[in-house]
Structures are given as structure tokens and as C-alpha cells.
Hints:
Helices cover 79% and strands 0% of the residues.
Amino acid sequence: MITRFFQLLGALLTLSALWLFWGDVRANDEAARLLGQVWYEASPGSLQLTEAVVDRYIDPCGLMPFLGCDTFIWHPFIATLLNWPAGLVLGLLGVIILLISSTVTKRSRKSVRHLKKEGR
């Protein structure tokens, strides 16, 4: 059930990447659309909210101010990803999810076959 969900998620991300690639190819004079640009066009409030949540509650330096360090998860890591082409990021993420879910499915099939051979 969960592997089917991840297979569907990977397929949707890959199809979204292909859609974005097609849009980038058709726009001859424009540069490729960036992931941050696509996210901002879809929902600007969620982009800002996600940055605040990551900086305050996920990043160890923001979570524990007594460490005295600057936050490092959003800037530079996530901010760098947001400046990459959206089709590239979504395509890579979709393919990675599909590969992992197919590997998990193959492992579970092997374990079921192994149990059937043993008579369990």
C-alpha cells in the first residue's frame, strides 16, 4: 500500500517534470523556470511559511538558540535548490522515488517467495 503511494508520487513528480521541460522548450526566448519561481507562483504564502518553519523548528541552530550558530538548512541548501530549474529537480526527485519504491517492492517479493519455499 505504501509502496504504491510512493510509486504514484514518483510518477506524478516525473510527469510534472516532463510538463515543465515541455513548457521550457516551447518558450524559446525565456530561461528555464526555477523551482522557487514555480512554487511562488503556485502558493507564495506556503513558500514563506516553509522557510520560517524550517529555520525555527527543523534547523538545529534555530531550534536551540544557545548553540549560537546561524541557521544552515534553508540558506544555503534549500535556497540553492530553489534556484535550480524546476523540471530538473522534480524529475530527479521523481526518478529517485520510483527507484527506491521499485527496490522495496522487489525485496518484499523476494521475502514472500522465500517464505513460501520454506512452507510458512
